[in-house]
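Quick review question:
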């Protein structure tokens, strides 16, 4: 992997990640951009104990542009974009309309491919491996910022999810606090350790793999170094958790063997998601979210890196909306039994 660090016209950082060592990335950003002006603010909810980012400047962000005006495509044929070069493998840049900025954290955009019409599932194993290296490198760099407590790489795909740019891309949030979801996992892991003397994540993984060995269970896909399963209490109609078998706290801890196998497992998983609802159906909207240990939180050593992949589509042509119980009380009601979801995801395996 070759990494090239440069700047956009308004001073934001841009980083190219290339498979080839001989690639030169020196195209300047020729756009006459105004300086960035953000209003990001973190407010703490005294009643719930969580945090909310207030970011009114995001009202003016780019919204469903036509394909020939996509800001994530390379700059070519006289059209200038966020990527000054005429092509790229993987590119990461600071978001011009960040939810988090300055002392309130940082937001980056990661472009998985220069091909506007592709999706992550269309990448080659080499390309997907390069994305993994970029996620890892961004985690390492952002971890060095004093205001950052946790790094969250994720991908939203599909208009149903709320995606406003169709180009294959994800985001990387660097939070100045430990997120509520991670804090809850850490508390439950600590309680499990105190009660049993064992690691909670290890026990969950052992339970799922043991059930699969008995001929049933919720395991969807398993390799030598990774295992994907539908969780016992899945919140979403089709939800899969992907774990490395050797527990690590964040992406930096993965060894070479796990890095090599990851593209094979993850690309197959994404392809299965697109087959859930049968032939002729539109691509499945999903969220793919990396859960990494906060950098300085107590109990970090007991946390397990994992990816959670889920769709809000519950059946053909129908979405799972968060209604009263889910939105008002955070009590999910799932229409698809996890065992049925796992069976369907096994049925649609590549042949």
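Suggested answer, residue by residue:
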């Amino acid at each position: 992997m070759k990494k090239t660090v440069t700047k956009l016209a308004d001073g934001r950082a841009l980083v190219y990640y290339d498979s080839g060592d001989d690639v030169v990335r020196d195209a300047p950003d020729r756009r006459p951009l105004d300086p960035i002006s953000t209003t990001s603010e973190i407010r703490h909810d005294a009643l719930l104990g969580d945090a909310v980012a207030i970011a009114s400047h995001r009202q003016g962000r780019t919204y469903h542009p036509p394909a020939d005006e996509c800001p994530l495509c390379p700059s070519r044929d006289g059209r200038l974009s966020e990527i000054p070069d005429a092509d790229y493998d993987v590119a990461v840049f600071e978001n011009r309309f960040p939810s988090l900025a300055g002392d309130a954290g940082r937001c980056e955009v990661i472009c998985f491919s220069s091909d506007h019409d592709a999706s992550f599932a269309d990448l080659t194993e080499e390309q997907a491996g390069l994305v993994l290296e970029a996620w890892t490198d961004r985690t390492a760099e952002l971890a060095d910022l004093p205001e950052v407590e946790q790094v969250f790489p994720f991908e939203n795909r599909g208009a149903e999810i709320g995606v406003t740019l169709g180009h294959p891309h994800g985001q990387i949030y660097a939070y100045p606090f430990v997120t509520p979801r991670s804090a809850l996992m850490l508390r439950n892991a600590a309680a499990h350790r105190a009660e049993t003397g064992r690691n909670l994540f290890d026990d969950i993984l052992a339970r799922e793999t043991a059930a699969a060995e008995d001929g049933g269970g919720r395991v969807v896909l398993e390799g030598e170094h990774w295992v994907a399963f539908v969780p016992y209490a899945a919140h979403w109609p089709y939800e899969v958790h992907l774990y490395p078998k050797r527990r690590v706290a964040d992406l930096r801890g993965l060894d070479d063997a796990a890095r090599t196998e990851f593209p094979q497992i993850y690309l197959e998983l994404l392809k299965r998601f697109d087959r859930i609802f049968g032939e002729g159906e539109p691509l499945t909207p999903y969220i793919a979210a990396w859960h990494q240990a906060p950098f300085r939180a107590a109990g970090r050593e007991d946390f397990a890196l994992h990816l959670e992949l889920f769709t809000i589509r519950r059946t053909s042509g129908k979405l799972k909306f968060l209604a009263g119980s889910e939105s008002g009380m955070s009590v999910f009601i799932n229409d698809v039994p996890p065992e049925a979801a796992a069976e369907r995801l096994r049925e649609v395996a590549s042949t």
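Why it works: Helices lie at 125-143, 180-196, 200-213, 256-273, 324-329, 338-347. DSSP finds six helices and 15 strands in the chain.
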